[in-house]
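In the current project phase, we have settled on a layout for protein records. A sample record is reproduced below.
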Amino acid sequence: MAVSRRNFPLFSLMVVMLFLNAIAVIGSNEESRQSKSLKNTTMADRSSEEAKLKYEHSDSVDDPEVVASMVEMTIRNSTERRELGFFSCGTGNPIDDCWRCDRNWMQHRKRLAECAIGFGRNAIGGRDGKYYVVTDPSDEDPVNPRPGTLRYAVIQDRPLWIIFKRDMVITLKQELIMNSFKTIDGRGVNVHIANGACVTIQFVNNIIIHGLHIHDCKPTGNAMVRSSPSHYGWRTIADGDGISIFGSSHIWIDHNSLSHCADGLIDAIMGSTAITISNNYFSHHNEVMLLGHSDSYTRDKVMQVTVTYNHFGEGLVQRMPRCRHGYFHVVNNDYTQWEMYAIGGSANPTINSQGNRFLAPANPFAKEVTKRIVSPEHDWKHWHWRSEGDLMLNGAYFTPSGHGAAASFARASSLAAKSSSLVGTLTSNAGVLSCRKGVQC
């Protein structure tokens, strides 16, 4: 179509207006899509929150297939999600870099809940509740605990972030049975749970335990114990574990020091899953960590546990961890002593060992990192156990098995492993931290 010079300015103006109108339509559509996406995200968040409030354990466990599909995205986003700007001190330990360099950590305690990694990364503990200050170390009546005690705090139905007024040694008469959505935060004081019963996490979810000395735990039981404001019941004999996780999910055990217990230091059994055990110091114990109830309890096939940045120190014998059925990511830990073996298992667990440092004992018959608890060798040849980037010292060796199935190891992957050469730095502050007000922790 020919346009005369006289009409050219008018024609140009019409073209520009049409172009701007097209842009506006596109922008409107994009805004609509974004608004719809935001609405859906908000609804998803709301649904997630409602699910937590209406928690039933059988519905809360993530399908290992679904978790595996999210791992790559989680690893990619983890650093950005936890970035604290000028607070980040760059030690290389992503949990510690998330919060430890903030001089005002005491005013920002709940930031810790944003710092979990691994399969227990969604454990929020008592983040959405009030602070509760433990002022009384006594445990005189496990059925009617006194306000101000640790037992009174952990049994409440509402979310709580539990802290301590001063240094204390808490000797529990019976198991400390925790309710859902609780954080026990021992930072800034010296808190020991010792010389009596210890911690039981049973049929609950969203628990964070941080900064406690847990040791010399003893069998207790054959007694009434309260587990919520509205319920108490008869407890049979407890084994004397430091921390017993039973039928629970979304659990994070971080920066504790554990030793000298009657049974395990940490046991997770009976369908427990979505667990991270990180930055702990284990010492002076025989059977350190059991993950999986029994060879016949197949419900533990849902289990996914991350064991990372821990120091397995002096006086340890075996089970670091000992696994059954599920998927276990053992990554960037420091093993400086074992007498029998470090990592073992039965009942076809998948074990993904990455970037660990294994220092074998002097005993020439105990150099092997791994132990399969079976009889004929062919029973375990198909189990998926691998060592990737591990540092083997003093003759240590890892016996792999399986065919390297990518799908199985994806379900046993929860974070990006760092070089084993960095393990000394990553685990240098394992165990209870010395934190003071107004100073970087």
